[in-house]
Amino acid sequence: MNSAQSIKLMKKTIFLLVVMIMITLLAGCDDSLTEMNIDHGRLSELPDEYLFTSAVHRTINDLHTEYDTRFGCQYAHIYVINSEFRSADSYLDYHLSDVYRQIFNYSYIEPLRYINRVVSMTSEGKTKNPVRNAIARIVAVVEYSRITDCFGDVPYFEGARGMENILYPKYDGQELIYHDMMDQLKSAIEILKTANTSQGYVGADPVYGNNLNKWSRFANSLRLRLAMRSRFVDPAGSATVIADCMNKPFIENNDENFGLKFQVSDNGELYNPWYETRKRQNWKMSDKFVEWLKSTNDPRLRILVDTTKTGEYKGFINGLTDQEQSKYQWEDFSDPKPALYAKDMTINLMCASEVWFLRAEAALFSLTAGNPQQLYQEGIRKNMLQWSVPAAEITEYLSTEPEATLNGSDENKFRQIATQMWVAFTPNFVEAWSNMRRTGYPVIPQRTDANVYALGATNGILPKRFKYSSSEYLTNKANLDVAIEQQGPDLIDTPVWWDVREK
Q1: Cα–Cα dist 265/273, whole Å
Q2: What pTM was estimated for this model as a whole?
Q3: Considering only Cβ atoms within 10 Å of each terminal Cβ, which end of the chain, N or C, has fewer?
Q4: What does the pLDDT look like over 452-495, one tens digit per residue?
Q5: Which residues pair with 79 in a beta bridge?
Q6: SS3 172
Q7: One domain for residues 93 and 174
Q8: Between 391-400 and 372-386, two packed helices, what is the crossing angle to 10 degrees?
Q9: 302 shares its domain with 176
């Protein structure tokens, strides 16, 4: 090898060594740069307690406008609205508008997405926590029960799991959903009854302040609601669940109600959103609701219903046509009293009164032991106390008012219980509507005179469900079609699974 060749080989070797050194250095720099570019002051994922608190607020609070002030309050015949929201009172559907889409999509995108993430985080890995997981599963049942009661078959096992890359979730039958929800609640109760409170959501529980006994009572009460709601379509299965519920504590007093508390404040984040909605929606009390309270000498009348300028309690008639409504002066009818939209009004999704009424119904039909009359009157008492009716007036009502004493046939007693539940649900209007669909009480007759009443999309029959989101037809149609084939036409007069009682 001559000198020229030697120099050339040496240069090539040096070049290769330099390249190898640079590759090694760059590899090390890449790791260093990656580490340098990580913001160690920023969380890579929100802690589950933050997600939990947000999910609870969204579950209880955020959807009240669409669920209750548009549909529930008018379907339950407690309010009448004089705005575009009155279309619901006319039994029209909104398939080509954004209303059903907003409710359906928001439930999955907001509360269910958050709470499903909490359930996932607390079930595995470093954040595994059976106590928090149990509480989160209870909250998930709250939201899933509401959306399935309004729509029927919905995505459940695959619902709100986009972060798990489930973009086109299958729909599950409501029967299957109900059975699993009741199982989830039973499992949660078993965990909570021996749980250490330090493992719960200390400082992050906006409902019960990490009182695990109250969470357990609520879960058992919610399980009773689900079992009673499905008892006409699944008598044997429901009876088993009801009997099991009776062996565990329930919500019994108003300080155990499941809801969010608010306060009198100038800060909109701290006061009840109904206060703000009232500025935009001109509600009147329904004739159905007002006349019932008047005819039964109910002391809640003056607390819930305002008088007209002539000093009367006068409700507006639900379902009038535009032409018929124009014959009346809107100002001549009763507004809701401020108690129904006060800044500091608590939004409750389940109260002691409902539980006592459910227990009265169960005892009446020999599903459990107990005195139906005593249980029934305790339900009335608890709701009146919730609205601060003086004790002396409650005692007088219970001892003198005929409707406060169960009488007549079992069917009439059932009517009495169901009607008192209707009053007591106020202002949880969607649950009032659901219980009316389940029981048939109070009776809402079919509208037949098209010259007076709007017959809507149901030929005058009280709507039985919401229609599916228009976006589901565009993005998840194959799975939606299966649900419609199983459940029935996507119409607002198609009953959901548990709505089978002859009215």
Answers
A1: 12
A2: 0.90
A3: N
A4: 999 999 999 999 999 999 999 999 999 999 999 999 999 999 99
A5: 285
A6: strand
A7: yes
A8: 150
A9: no
